[in-house]
Specification:
single chain, about 600 residues, alpha/beta, six-stranded mixed sheet, about 60% helix, flat, disordered N terminus
Length: about 600
């Protein structure tokens, strides 16, 4: 007797496969870990520190919790740090302090507890400070600043280095101040101004550079100043109050203070500017009164008017009722179609039933004949010819059955349409009822306020002060040119309405509140002096634009002394809107951190 062999269930086999796969991955992982540790040990023995560090880091990436690898990595870095320290000692002995500092920083980066490297680094930094002091004493300021900055990059709070940086700044300030004095004595005021500004920016307060810069700036402004020689106003209108608003002091106050425009009464020869002569021809106050009328609407009473809201509701109700008529018409059409198709369905159904009855009777007759033929047959097991199954399956009623199915589907569809029409008609009837309720609730008439217009007299009072000023602007360099006087009218007007009060109609009394004539005379003088200041500024813009074009042609050499002289004077002329293509190159060429200091800001 054979014993059946039982197969093990599949689930344990799958678990074993999974465990085997996990074990395979673990073995491969352990293999990579062990290989990396072994490689790190070999490279450490060969003093290949960078490759050994990379190998230990790969081992830690495979197993971050391997404490023995962490210990080996720390020991390797200590050894590496010791080797770099020995090399740093040799470099320090040769006097290469920057190289020794770089190596010592690397040694401390590998082993922060390397006390010997830290002590030697302190000694190196002190030596660099001493070297910087010696360079400072020998006036090698750039070298000294570089040494101090290198020390501060390692120890930002090194007291000697910070003190040395301050000393370097003071030395730079004194050097630039001395340069500025030499340039000023040589008459190169533009270069002297930039030198004083550089000295002040190097170390504020170390020298008197700021005061000297202000004095030089003022000399330059006086040198390039655009003079406006304004003679006293000729008062032909006998109006001292208006003439006083046209005085030279008022013109100086109207001009921008940033640019060097000086208003004087006399000017030396060969100076750039204009001569302004003013004559106040007349000052004429005009008063006018104009009569007009205004209307004020007031409430006269109330009246009954048809309610516009009721009409809106009635129109909406009429529209809804017409919609209801259309819906009912569609409902009647759907009902007629449904009844007609229902009658046709009944006729088709009766025809189909009569056809089925005929088929059933014919089949019964065939079955009876088959029975009689079978009983009369003498040979058992033989089927007579009268017992043919195909005789009952004639399918004579197929057309009637198909017509019945089509008619039934059409009737079902019409029934759905009839139900939808009935539901829509019912919904529309509810809308009609709501519209009727809204119409009945709204009143037929409402009260409307009646307004009327009250006409009353109004007076317009207008006060106008007109001043006529004749001005002559002549170029100082073309004093012999024929004068071209310009006569301009300036007027200031103020107006106000006045009328009586009528309490019954809600019209409040409005008295005349015209401004004082003296105020308008002062204002017309200010308007005239403002227009004159704009004309003077047009002349000044033309003058300084030529200077700007000359300075731009020399910007290919922004550091040249002659270019700087021209550029500084142009910048003072354009202090209100300095051109950047001149300001920035000049400031960069002279090392100014704040270019706006040229203008005293």
């Amino acid at each position: 007797m054979l014993t059946p062999v039982r197969r093990p269930p599949p689930a344990p086999s799958r678990r074993l496969a999974v465990l085997a796969l996990c074990a395979l991955f673990a073995v491969s992982g352990c293999t990579a870990f062990g290989r990396a540790v072994k490689e790190g040990d070999e490279l450490t023995a060969q003093h290949k520190w960078a490759e050994a560090e990379a190998a230990y880091l790969r081992a830690l990436a495979a197993d971050p919790e391997a404490s023995e690898v962490t210990v080996k990595l720390r020991a390797m870095r200590k050894s590496w740090s010791e080797e770099i320290f020995l090399e740093a000692q040799k470099v320090h002995g040769t006097g290469d302090l920057p190289g020794a500092q770089k190596l010592l920083l690397r040694a401390l980066e590998l082993d922060g507890e390397n006390a010997e490297a830290r002590a030697l680094l302190t000694q190196t930094l002190d030596a660099r400070v001493e070297a910087a002091r010696k360079a400072l004493k020998d006036e090698r300021l750039q070298e000294a600043r570089a040494e101090f900055d290198a020390v501060l990059a390692v120890q930002p709070d090194h007291p000697a280095a910070r003190k040395g940086v301050d000393a370097v700044q003071v030395a730079w300030a004194r050097r630039w101040f001395k340069t500025g004095q030499q340039l000023e004595e040589g008459g190169r005021l533009g270069n002297a101004l930039l030198a004083y500004l550089r000295a002040d920016q190097e170390r504020v307060g170390a020298t008197a550079a700021r005061e000297r810069a202000e004095a030089v700036r003022q000399k330059l402004r006086d040198e390039v100043a655009f003079l406006v020689v304004a003679s006293p106003v000729e008062d032909r209108a006998q109006s001292p109050d208006v003439a006083q608003r046209l005085a030279p002091g008022r013109l100086a106050a109207m001009l921008p203070q940033e640019v060097p425009i000086l208003v004087v009464t006399e000017a030396p020869a060969s100076k750039v500017g204009v001569k302004l002569e003013l004559a106040l021809e007349r000052v004429m106050p005009l008063k006018a009164v104009e009569q007009s009328q205004r209307t004020q609407r007031y409430l006269a009473g109330n009246r009954s008017v048809p309610n516009p809201r009721r009409k809106q509701f009635e129109d909406r109700l009429l529209q809804v009722e017409r919609t209801l008529e259309e819906v009912e018409r569609k409902q009647a059409t759907a009902l007629r179609d449904y009844l007609r198709r229902q009658a046709e369905l009944n006729t088709v159904r009766q025809t189909a039933e009569r056809c089925r009855e005929r088929e059933r009777k014919a089949c019964l007759e065939i079955i009876q004949l088959c029975g009689e033929a079978a009983s009369a047959l003498e040979q058992p097991g033989r089927v007579p010819e009268e017992c043919n199954p195909q005789a009952c399956a004639t399918r004579q009623c197929g057309q009637e059955e198909q017509l019945l199915a089509q008619s039934s589907a059409v009737v079902v569809q019409l029934e759905k349409q009839l139900d939808a029409a009935l539901e829509q008609a019912e919904s529309q009837r509810r809308e009609v009822q709501r519209g009727r309720d809204a119409v009945f609730r709204e009143p037929v008439t409402v009260e409307e306020p009646m307004y009327s217009d009250f006409v009353y007299d109004v007076e317009l009072h207008r006060l106008t002060v007109k001043a006529t000023v004749t001005s002559v602007l002549r170029d100082l360099l073309e004093a012999d040119a024929a004068p071209a006087p310009v006569t301009q009218d300036y007027d200031v007007a103020h107006e106000d309405f006045t009328h009586k009060g009528y309490d019954r109609y809600g019209v409040l009394a409005d008295p005349v509140q015209l401004r004082n004539e003296l105020e308008l005379r002062v204002e017309v003088g200010d308007k005239a002096i403002e227009d004159l200041s704009e004309r003077v500024m047009e002349r000044f813009d033309t003058y300084r634009q030529k200077r700007v074009e000359d300075a731009r042609r020399g910007m290919v050499r922004p550091g040249a002394e002659d270019v700087v002289e021209t550029a500084v004077r142009v910048l003072l002329l354009t202090a209100d809107k300095p051109p950047a293509d001149i300001l920035l190159p000049v400031a960069q060429a002279r090392g100014l951190q704040r270019p706006e200091a040229i203008f005293g800001k």
